[in-house]
Write a structure and sequence with these properties.
The chain is an all-alpha fold. It contains seven helices and no strands. The protein has one domain: 434 Repressor (Amino-terminal Domain) (Orthogonal Bundle), CATH 1.10.260. Helix 1 runs antiparallel to helix 5, helix 2 crosses helix 3 and helix 5 packs across helix 6.
């Protein structure tokens, strides 16, 4: 099954949001007083260049490591993950946190 090509406007927005996420992560790292190499070492990453790639918007913090990143930066994992979701998956973030409708409020038949 082939993937559908991404709309150029959506691709530009995704790129922009990744860069914003990277700037946010960089400021959190700097606030924690860590270099990229120190952050990578404390998280058990083999190469600090991954941190650089994420901070430059060329990569994402993997879901399975978001709690580790948060704790290493001295941040609470829940709000950290929500912030990244706002950058990485803005539509999902909107559906989950901004519509004012909680899925738990919907009838079970509508949730299926």
């Amino acid at each position: 099954m082939s993937r559908t090509a991404m709309n150029p406007a959506k691709a530009a927005l995704t790129k922009s949001l990744r860069r914003e996420a990277g700037r946010w992560l960089k400021s959190a790292r700097e606030a924690a007083g860590l270099t990229q190499a120190e952050l990578a070492e404390r998280m058990g990453l083999r190469y600090y260049t991954f941190v650089s790639q994420v901070e430059n918007g060329l990569g994402r913090v993997p879901i399975e490591t978001q709690a580790i990143w948060a704790r290493t930066l001295g941040l609470d994992p829940g709000p950290f993950a929500r912030t990244l979701l706002r950058y990485y998956e803005p539509e999902l973030h909107r559906l989950l946190f901004e519509d004012g409708v909680d899925a738990g409020d919907a009838p079970l038949a509508a949730q299926a």
